[in-house]
Design goal:
elongated; five-stranded mixed beta sheet; 66% helix
Length: 438
C-alpha cells in the first residue's frame, strides 16, 4: 500500500513537471494547438517516461525526456526544430539537476539528512522543493528571453512581481520542508506543513498561468492593431489611387482646352509663356505615373500612405525596391517593420531643411539575404539606452517607445539583424536591416 502511494505521488510529480514545461513553451513559442490536444499529448508522453523510470537507468530516461519534450514542442507550437531541440535539452537538464540537486541541498541544510529514514513526509518535502525549483529556473529563463527581446518595456511592474513571487515562494517552501524533515512532526502538524508547502507551489503555478495569459492577450492585441493598421493603409492607398484617377480624367477632359491655350501662346510668339505652361502641366501630379512603388501590394499601400505624409511635410521620399523581394514577409511583420521605421524617419525629419528619406531594398548578390537601407535627415543625435536601443523623444512615453521593439521582434522572425548610426557630417540617420529569406 505504501509503495503504491509513493508511486502515485511520483507519477503526480511527473505530471506537474509536464505542466511546467507546457507553461514554459507557452511563454517562448506561439501555440498552434488547443489546450485539450496539448494536455492529452503531455499525459501520454510523460506517462511513458514515468514507466521508463522503473528501469532505473537515468540516461535512457533523460534521452526519452528530451525526445518527448521535442515532439511536444514541434507538434504543438510554431517553432523551428533546432530551437525546439535546444529548449528540450535545457528543460531536461534543469529537471535532472533539480531532482539530483534537491537532496544535496537538504544535506547541506541538514547535516544528518542521509542518515534519516525516508518517510512519506520527507519524500513529499523533497519532491515539492524539486518541483518548485524546476518551475522557478524555467520561469526565470523564459523571463530573461522576453526581456532580451524587449517584449516587456510596458510591463516593468509585472516583471518585478513575476520575479519576486517565485523567489519568495521558494524560500518559504524550502523553510517549511526543512522544518518538516528536521522536527519530524506527526499527525496534524505534518499535514499542515505539507499543505502549506503545496499551497506555495500552487501560488507559483497560478502566477505563471496569469503571466502566460498576459502574454497571450498582448500577442492577440498586437495582431489586432497590426490588422487594423493594414486595413487603414489599404484604404488610404486605394483612396489615393481613386483621387489621382479622378484628377487624370479631369485633365484628359480638359486637354483640348489646354492645347488650344498653348497654340494661342505660340501664335502670339510668346514662346516663354508657352514653355512655362507646358512645364507646369508636365510637373502636375495628374500626369505622373500611378501610385505604385513596388510589386508588393501591402508594402505599396504603406508607402503610399507615408508618401502623402511626406508631401504634406515637404519631405522628399525616394524609394528604390527591386522586383520580387519581401514576398516571404508576413503581413503583420511587414506592417510592423516599415510603418514604424517610416514614422520614426518622418519624425526625425521635422525642423530639418531640405529633409529627405531614402529607402532601398535589395538582395545581396547570389544569396538569400535581403538588405533594407533607410537614410533620413536628422538634426540631432538620437538617444540610446544602456542596451543600445533607441529611446523615444515623445512626451508621452507610456504610449510610445514600442515601435522599435516591434521592429526588433518582427526582424527576429527571419534571423534578421538591425544596425543604425548617426552621421554628424551629413546630419543623417542610417538604419540597415538584414533579413534571411527562407
Amino acid at each position: 500500500m505504501t509503495y503504491m502511494i509513493f508511486q502515485s505521488c511520483y507519477y503526480l510529480v511527473y505530471l506537474i513537471g509536464a505542466y511546467i514545461f507546457e507553461q514554459f513553451c507557452d511563454t517562448i513559442y506561439n501555440s498552434k494547438r488547443d489546450l485539450g490536444f496539448k494536455a492529452t499529448l503531455l499525459i501520454i508522453l510523460y506517462s511513458f517516461i514515468f514507466s521508463l523510470s522503473y528501469f532505473g537507468d537515468l540516461l535512457i530516461t533523460a534521452i526519452f525526456l528530451v525526445y518527448s519534450n521535442f515532439v511536444f514542442s514541434i507538434l504543438c507550437y510554431k517553432c523551428k526544430w533546432h530551437f525546439a531541440f535546444i529548449n528540450s535539452v535545457i528543460a531536461t537538464v534543469v529537471m535532472i539537476f533539480c531532482d539530483v540537486g534537491t537532496p544535496s541541498l537538504f544535506s547541506v541544510l541538514i547535516p544528518d539528512f542521509y542518515e534519516k529514514d525516508l518517510q512519506f513526509s520527507n519524500f513529499v518535502a523533497i519532491n515539492i522543493v524539486s518541483i518548485i525549483s524546476y518551475y522557478i529556473i524555467l520561469h526565470f529563463l523564459s523571463l530573461q528571453r522576453k526581456i532580451q527581446k524587449l517584449e516587456f518595456k510596458f510591463l516593468d511592474d509585472i516583471i518585478i512581481v513575476m520575479y519576486v513571487i517565485p523567489a519568495l515562494s521558494y524560500f518559504i517552501t524550502l523553510t517549511l520542508c526543512t522544518i518538516s524533515i528536521v522536527s519530524n512532526p506527526s499527525g496534524m502538524v505534518t499535514i499542515l506543513i505539507s499543505c502549506s508547502a503545496l499551497l506555495m507551489v500552487i501560488i507559483c503555478l497560478t502566477a505563471g498561468l496569469f503571466y502566460t495569459n498576459i502574454i497571450s492577450k498582448n500577442r492577440k492585441l498586437t495582431k489586432l492593431r497590426i490588422q487594423a493598421q493594414k486595413d487603414y493603409d489599404d484604404t488610404q492607398y486605394f483612396k489615393m489611387v481613386n483621387e489621382r484617377d479622378e484628377r487624370q480624367r479631369i485633365l484628359i477632359h480638359d486637354i483640348k482646352k489646354h492645347l488650344h491655350s498653348i497654340m494661342d501662346l505660340l501664335d502670339s510668339t510668346d514662346n516663354n509663356d508657352a514653355i512655362e505652361y507646358i512645364n507646369t502641366m508636365l510637373k502636375s501630379n495628374e500626369l505622373k505615373n500611378s501610385v505604385r512603388f513596388c510589386d508588393n501590394n501591402l508594402l505599396n499601400s504603406i508607402l503610399a500612405r507615408y508618401s502623402k505624409t511626406c508631401a504634406e511635410n515637404n519631405i522628399s521620399l525616394n524609394v528604390d525596391i527591386r522586383k520580387g523581394l519581401l514576398s516571404f514577409l508576413k503581413f503583420e511583420d511587414m506592417t510592423a517593420i516599415f510603418s514604424n521605421l517610416l514614422e520614426n524617419a518622418i519624425d526625425a525629419c521635422g525642423n530639418c531643411d531640405n529633409s529627405f528619406i531614402d529607402l532601398s531594398i535589395t538582395r545581396k548578390s547570389s544569396t538569400n539575404l535581403i538588405l533594407v537601407d533607410i537614410v533620413n535627415s536628422c538634426k540631432t543625435i538620437p538617444l540610446t539606452d544602456a542596451y543600445g536601443q533607441l529611446i523615444t523623444t515623445k512626451s508621452n512615453t507610456l504610449n510610445h517607445g514600442y515601435g522599435m521593439k516591434s521592429v526588433t521582434n518582427a526582424i527576429s522572425n527571419y534571423n534578421g539583424n538591425m544596425q543604425f548610426h548617426f552621421d554628424p557630417t551629413t546630419f543623417t540617420f542610417h538604419t540597415i536591416i538584414t533579413l534571411l529569406e527562407p
